[in-house]
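Self-study notes.
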Amino acid sequence: MATSKEIVVSGIRSTGYLHLGNYFGAIRNYIKMQETFNCYFFVADWHSLTTHPDPKDLRANVFRVLAENIASGLDPEKVALYVQSDVPEIAELYLLLNMLAYKGELERVPTFKDKVRLQPENVNAGLLTYPVLMSADILVHRGVKVPVGKDQEQHLEMARNYAQRFNNHYGQLFPEPVPFNFGDDLVKIPSLDGNGKMSKSENQMATLYLSDSDDLILEKIKKAKSDSGVVPEGAPMPESVQNLFLLMQQVSAPDVIKYFEDQYNSQGLRFGEMKKQLGEDMVRFIAPIREKALDLQQDQAYLNRIMKVGAEKARESAAQTLLEARKLIGINYY
């Protein structure tokens, strides 16, 4: 890993299936970043333990997420692609940062409040300290740039706070990480039912997964919400129609998009025709990723080798950080 390059760190939880929103909201940027930055990308299996997954599911999910990232274009030769639990230094830094984290601030985090509401019977300490572990993921590599969505920006702000507290208390070690996405607005891929964005766990028929079959992709898009009436000339485009065009902009050719835009502007748009075209274009986009990911998942030896090499790269970086952290704190007795 080239140490002269700025360090980028990002992870994805090993729960659910990767979907179109993950690809256009994160993975597409990862593929660009790997050409320019020193990248550490990981599968966040420790984070997923807050929901107590079945061990068999956890293992299968980790391998699938790895395979889908590689199938989407991540090159393990260019980045450190690893599993969080293969880097024990993260857990040690998590413990050290917990000494600088306070119960009140953690309880005020909106995502924690959401989890408490959604799973009141499982409000575990891991949920409460989720932002601390996320901070350790980043700071263990002294990451500078972190590709995050809007819903994670507060967690990144907390990572900056912990970096500042450590530096002020013990001495300068951590840079303050900042959100980074090449200056572009993040693409938020809409749910096909018009309710928010695509999700790993919400309405599965409203989300396009990278593992969906061709027939299922066509069926989901056919059922996607669209406008049923004629929109008066000059009126704003309904959100459901905007959503279809946004999806089309990700996977269709410019001349195809222009054709349907012209149809809409002349009030002659036939949604059945548009959805048929969008479905075919979406199949062409997703099918190669799905097929390559399936092939990779059959090659356990290859994925094990990728995990091992990625962990070695990540541990080399993390060990240096922990060595410095222990010295500054005073935990160096020999």
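Second protein, same conventions, sequence then structure:
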Amino acid sequence: MAQFPAGHVPLIATLLRWLRPRPGSLDDTLWHAACARLPWVAALEPERRERLRALAARFLHEKTITPLAGLQLDDGERVLLAALCCLPLLEFGAAGLRGWSQLLVYPDAFRVRRSHVDAAGVLHEWDDDLAGEAWDHGPLILSWADVQADLEDPAAGYCVAVHEMAHKLDVLDGELDGTPPLPARWHREWARDFQRAYEAFCAQVDAGRETAIDPYAAEAPEEFFAVATEYHFSAPSLLAEAMPEVAAHLARFYGPPPAL
């Protein structure tokens, strides 16, 4: 078979994009019902809400949502999950959906087996009960019960779906390190400010002092970023008071937080 010259590769890519089915639009009734159940979405300006609607349609077109352990999800609940997962993509865009294809949803918190070999070569194993998890190049996993709990108290500082989506954004540059893909100058400023805030926060936690945000953020730089993301959407004033530089970076990256 004759081959196209190298200069035709962009043409082939354009053709493949043209042949690929485009995401459909979301049903009006399902979309409005999802907005009514999602306080963060209902609080968005109309233009950003429409942007989120397009992202959610793309999510449903590209991702398989698989309920597990007897859980059943209707069409409205699938739209709700898609919209919730796309909230962190309002400014970043659909590129934030790259690298994975499946959302797994358990009815409740799920258990995973962990293992770690310490410096002495001793293997330690334990079980973790999780509300969510994001594999580097695999599925995103959520507990439906925890999603529901977040919806019932949207200003409490918790949103497991955006937490796990923050991890998906974080790893797009190949490193899960608390810094998503950014232009070079901003990357340097982000890394400097987040590292300073993270070290100060860890010192508070290590000293046993009460912290304004969930102490789980001290687990690792990537968890600090993901927890701060939750607060950006669900308790932005608290985050801005506790960590103004972090809050400013997140407002630039995610756009202004919803006015709950």
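Instructor comment on the second fold: The first strand starts at residue 64 and ends at 67.
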